[in-house]
Amino acid sequence: MQTPNIHLLTTGGTIAMKRDPASGRVLPALDADALLATVPALADSATISVHPFSNQPSAYMGPPQWYALYNKLQTLLADTNVNGVVISHGTDTLEETAFFLACCLATDKPVVLTGAQRHASEADSDGPRNLLQAVNVAASPMARGRGVLVVINQHIFSARDVQKIHTEQLAGFAAGEAGCLGSIAQQAVYFYQPPQPHKTLPLTHADFPRVDIVAMYGGADGALIDAAVAAGAKGLVIQALGAGNTNTEQYRAIASAIKAGVCVAVSSRVQQGRVGPVYGYQGGGQTLQELGCLMAADLSPQKARIALILGLHNGLSAPAIQALFY
Ligand SMILES: NC(=O)C[C@H](N)C(=O)O
């Protein structure tokens, strides 16, 4: 059997960081070749070509970097000899990059993101194992047609549902009620469900509208919502309470944001479950929906923001953006 051809696109993150002995700081250290060299066993699984994209913390990723990554992936995936792509990435915003790409990359080939919770100078860093497992998934014919995947700690997640749930533990990612799509054991890849069809949105240009996330909390007022509108936000995601609730002060600020033409989506600070028009007191989800707010289903605020950015980027109507959240 022919060895699969996998492209490894390196972006940085803890997987490529080490503690600098002089300063004691954990900093980017491994370039793409050095990262590849941390896993000699990769050569048994695939023929790998490395593509350095960046070497930075994932906190430095955002729409311009996601767009550049998307363009790079379009080129790599067009190569008919390539079986799949692995992207090494910091874990802090890994789910955002994965979701952005999942929303717009139209490909049947596996695109798999991975990272590490422990940096490369820790004796028990999880980076090499995660990288090996990500390559095994990208090389697996069973991973085709499943969109963008995330592989961490022997689990395979969909980009839509995965979330970082622990700051340090190796089992730092989960997918809430949706659960994981599959797992890896002794290098063998298992999926628990058949691939689900999903739609993608084209990226037509490099401009992405400003969309801010504003949190609701006990005693919050509308000042940050007003500030986001004044800063030029075209969209806002409210990180609401519970099933999508705010208070009177935020309700009033949201009403004036909508009047000013800003598209407002409601998400929740609670990690699992959906938002909806449940409560009818002023600021409750029902009253926010009556104002014209969209309900971001079970998407986290950071993913609802990406869906909103892409919906506005494509000039979609409010109902079409609402449909994107599902
Ligand atoms: N574990 C990690 O990769 C965290 C790191 N700060 C990053 O996201 O770049």
Automatic annotation (TrEMBL):
The protein's matches in CDD domains, at most eight in alphabetical order, are given as: L-asparaginase_II
Annotated Asparaginase/glutaminase C-terminal domain residues: 210-325
Which positions in this protein are listed as binding substrate? 58, 91-92
Example GO BP: asparagine metabolic process
Which ranges carry the L-asparaginase N-terminal domain?
Answer: 5-195
Q: Which InterPro entries match?
A: AsnASE_II, Asp/glu_Ase-like_sf, Asparaginase/glutaminase-like, Asparaginase/glutaminase_AS1, Asparaginase/glutaminase_AS2, Asparaginase_C, L-asparaginase_C, L-asparaginase_N
Active site located where? 14, 91
- GO MF, one annotated term: asparaginase activity
Q: Which SUPFAM superfamilies match?
A: Glutaminase/Asparaginase
Question: What keywords is this UniProt entry annotated with?
Answer: Hydrolase
Which PANTHER family does this chain map to?
A: 60 KDA LYSOPHOSPHOLIPASE, L-ASPARAGINASE
Q: Which family does it belong to?
A: Belongs to the asparaginase 1 family.
The identity of this protein, by name, is: L-asparaginase
